[in-house]
Amino acid sequence: MNQSVLDSQLHRMEQALRASPDQMLEFKAKRDLLARILQLKEEKNVLILGHNYMEPLVFYLSGENERGDSLALSRRAAETDKPIILFDGVRFMAETAKILSPDKKVLIPDPEAGCSLAEPFTAADVLEYRRRYPGCPVVTYINSYADVKAETDYCCTSSNGPNVVRHAARAFGTNRVIFFPDSLMGANLQKELEPDGIEIIYPGKEDDKFGRCEVHEKFTVEILRGIRRQYNLIKGSEETAVLAHWECLPEVLAEADYYGSTSQMAQYIAKHPKLKRVFLATECEMAANLALEYPQVEFVKTCNMFCQHMRRITLEKILYSLEHEVYEISVDPAIAARARQAIDRMLEVPRG
Ligand code: 13P
Ligand code: SF4
Fold first, then answer.
1. N or C: which end of the chain has fewer CB within 10 A?
2. What pLDDT sits at residue 352?
3. pLDDT tens per residue, range 226-249
4. Quick one: fold of 216-300?
């Protein structure tokens, strides 16, 4: 790679990190490692996608249109012409990229990066729900593996859940929709879609097997209220905000000023320029990344709610993965083709 291109990429990263002395210190210490990764990225023509929960040095390795939430990164994976995609995120995300780009080599720096929502459920669970609720469409959250998606009518993510569920209900001519596998998001969708007369059937509602995000379930309404008091985050104020992810408990969403996907929370901050102080009820690195983008906003960092799976993705593992072209994601082509239909149906739903 030509030296001036490499220098300009390192400069782009340095600019992104400059608001934080801690990040700058780490950037300087790891400059050679970053340079080697960027060099390999260029030489091998790799698209590096970075989820919003990556630590800042990993997050900003990806360019502006290559960072984001699950939906944005799926779209980006589907449209790339690069032969290799390296996914800085968890396995279900890399698997979704492979389903959407089957002829590309899709790598994940640590194949053990799982997700507490995706892990417990298999295709058999979906088939059992179909048996119990015949004629009801199945909407599956993107935090799931290919075999579950393959038995699904529509996928959705946290940025389009209500819209996809409404669409599925209309398309099937029913007011009952099966939602997999997140029980808290299922309960939240139920509340959100009550005015539409839609009933959501989700794991844990009528049986014992449920799915929860091990990070978001830890936020309680008492924690949020305590933080509001301590940091003077007044509900409804133009200058402060408590934002929560859809995967939190229903009462936590009710306590927040706004709830949405990871990118929708970021957009909320962009659209509210008067904000001075914000607390995010979500994975902690998200606040670290936003603090770099919005140095005028104070991000309350009381939490130590890290996703152990997202934390597995480090610069050292990224370098190893690029050098040796490991760990490659593979999906049975017949399952991938059926899973893809569910993802494509989601991507075709008109935005609400
Ligand atoms: P987003 O789709 O909002 O990026 O969320 C993915 C996720 O895993 C949240 O915990
Ligand atoms: Fe899964 Fe929760 Fe981690 Fe997101 S934060 S990847 S939902 S365990």
1. C
2. 78
3. 999 999 999 999 999 999 999 999
4. Rossmann fold (3.40.50)
